[in-house]
Amino acid sequence: MNHDEDIQAQLEALPPELQETIKKQPPGIRETMLRLYHKSLVNEAREEAEKIRATISPGGQATPQQMWAPCAKMPSDMCRVSPFFPLSKQEMARREYVRDLTITKSSWGEIKYTGPRLSVYEEDVLLAVLALLDQGAPSYTYNGPLLPVLRLMGYEKYGGADYKKILGALKLLIGTVIELTVSRKKGKKPKLLFASNIISAAKWDDEKQELHVAVNPYFAELYAKGGVTLLDVQERMQLKTQVARALYRFCQSQNNLTDMHFMTLAAALNLDLEAPAFRTRDRIKKAITELVKHGILDNESGFRGKDIVRLARTPQSRIRHKLIEG
Q1: Same domain for 195 and 150?
Q2: Are 254 and 173 in a shared domain?
Q3: Are strands 199-205 and 210-215 parallel, antiparallel or unpaired?
Q4: Domain limit, last residue, from 206, 228, 250
Q5: Between 78 and 273, the higher pLDDT residue
Q6: How many whole angstroms separate alpha carbon 237 and alpha carbon 153?
Q7: What's the number of domains the chain is made of?
Q8: Which of 178, 202, 228 is the last residue of a domain?
Q9: Does residue 217 sit in the same domain as residue 116?
Q10: Whole-number Å distance between alpha carbons of 314 and 209
Q11: Which residues, including other chains, have CB under 8 Å from residue 66's CB and lie 6 or more apart?
């Protein structure tokens, strides 16, 4: 992508009314306005994220609190909170639109999700894009071929249908809203409200075979910053089932794993809590077996009796490396 095309891609990622204002300016002024806008947006996103972290955890030291579903200590990195669900092909074909779905609720506040029900596949696409952003200088946009995304997602053979599927996933990520409410003490009204989508814009140039993706800076700063490495994505994509990938995300986001009831783990993995218990147990058992096979969980992991699950990571799974140094 040359300089002019890059400027055009940046323009198309802006709100329509702002696009029109900047397009009316001479080329040199246009570039300056774009640069100042993005600098202002990124700085504002960082300031908001720091403000929220400071409100949740004054002094940077949080009192451990258990989330309502996943047994994770909160507050913590927001990448531990997931709006992604293991969905079957049938469920993905007829997605429901969810409004104000509570993902996390604790004494510090609440995180809600509004948008199409997202699958683990959309999470795979998002993680691949975030990993590519992580390679070079700090950025919230990816401009380039689709091949690196496909490779990170484990594709060995691919065609037009796979391209469309990835672009469809990006469209779904654009149509999302993640809302965070930080509580005030003594039952007062919420102190802070914050909402953002995950992807701000996405474009595919069929003639040049180039992809443009803009990750929302607010989402990146608050939820995803520091949470993705190339190794994470590539290791995760070796897992065959969506439930195993969801379990991988859960295990890698925890400092200390503890024994828990299988339904507590099912809630953390966004499994269907209305499904028969034997089916839920079976899905969790198969996911654990897969993670043991790949050396992420050790051989002591599994069910203890009928209902209690023990998860124990291997020493090597605790070490996070970046395969490409920026």
Answers
A1: yes
A2: no
A3: antiparallel
A4: 228
A5: 273
A6: 6
A7: 2
A8: 228
A9: yes
A10: 41
A11: 72, 73, 74, 106
Does a structural domain hold residue 10?
no
Q: What is the pLDDT of residues 241-262, one digit of tens each?
A: 999 999 988 887 777 788 999 9
The 3-state secondary structure of the chain reads: CCHHHHHHHHHHCCCHHHHHHHHCCCHHHHHHHHHHHHHHHHHHHHHHHHHHHHHHCHHHCCCCEECCCCCCEECCCHHHCCCEECCCHHHHHCCCEEEEEEEEEECCEEEEEEEECEEHHHHHHHHHHHHHHCCCCCCCEEEECCHHHHHHCCCCCCCHHHHHHHHHHHHHHHCCEEEEEECCHHHCCCCEEEEECCEEEEEEECCCCEEEEEECHHHHHHHHCCCCCHHHHHHHHCCCCHHHHHHHHHHHCCCCCCCEEHHHHHHHCCCCCCCCHHHHHHHHHHHHHHHHHCCCECCCCEEECCCEEECCECHHHHCCCCCCCC
Q: Which residue segment(s) compose the domain that 304 sits in?
A: 240-318
Residues 79 and 209 in one domain: yes
- For residues 158 and 221, membership in a common domain is answered with yes
Query: Do residue 81 and residue 220 come from a single domain?
Result: yes
Which pLDDT score is estimated for 321?
A: 37
Q: Does 270 share its domain with 145?
A: no
Record the tokens describing residue 234, joined without a space.
């590539």
- Structure token digits, residue 26: 């001479």
Residues 272 and 170 in one domain: no
Among the ranges given (73-82, 89-98, 226-235, 285-294), the one the predictor scored with the smallest mean pLDDT: 73-82
Please report where in the chains the tokens 């806008």 appear, as a residue: 37
| 258 part of a folded domain | yes
Tokens describing residue 278: 């034997």
pLDDT of residue 108: 64
Find which of 32-41, 100-109, 212-221 is predicted with most confidence, using mean pLDDT: 212-221
